[in-house]
Amino acid sequence: MKIGMLGAGTIAQAIARHAVRHGHEVVLSNSRGPDSLAPLVQDLGPLASAATPAEAATADLVVLAVGWPQIPDVAARLPSLDGTVVIDATNQFATLHPRPTVADLGEITGSEYVASLLPGARVVKAFNSLFARYIAADPAP
Q1: CA distance 133 to 85
Q2: How open is the CA angle 65-66-67, to the nearest 5 degrees?
Q3: Residue 2 reports pLDDT greater than 90
């Protein structure tokens, strides 16, 4: 399976490491471009590559792991995701440290907001309730 990562931070890297260890291809992307991901791709090995977010979004499965404020811009640049499963690993923090604030979405949930920006995608919420260090760890313990 090919997994496209929208974002290449700690959550995306943790998921990517598990994926390549289990034989899946991973396509990483970020806002700085594929060249900025060369050291990470080399570290992950031959099953990893880097691309633009639009290219990563053509994978069999897509993981959305960007900061909340970046979601609308990322979503606007993606191709049609009709039927694609998108794992939404985001949290609706409008600002982070030192004083995190939650984005006011009115009556909708964060995933409903994300789904509204990705028409046709099958959005699944996961990986948003643990710190990256727990996701990165060997899941057996």
Answers
A1: 24
A2: 130
A3: yes
DSSP secondary structure letter of residue 107:
T
DSSP strand pairing (122-125 vs 85-88): parallel
- The rounded distance, in Å, linking the Cα atoms of 47 and 107 is 41
- For residue 57, the model assigns a pLDDT of 97
| Nearest Cα to Cα of residue 4 among 67, 60, 46 | 60
Residue 121: partners with Cβ closer than 8 Å, 6 or more residues away: 62, 81, 82, 83, 84, 85, 86, 115
What is the SS3 string spanning 58-90?
A: CCCEEEECCCHHHHHHHHHCCCCCCCCEEEECC
User: Which of residues 129 and 54 earns the better pLDDT score?
Assistant: 54
H-run or E-run covering 130: none
The residue whose two tokens read 């794992």 is 87
Distances (CA, A) of 10 to 5, 21, 106: 12, 17, 29
Return the percent helix, strand and coil in the chain, to nearest 5.
35, 20, 45
User: CA–CA separation, 28 vs 56, rounded Å?
Assistant: 7
pLDDT at residue 12 greater than cutoff 70: yes
Look up the pTM and report it.
0.89
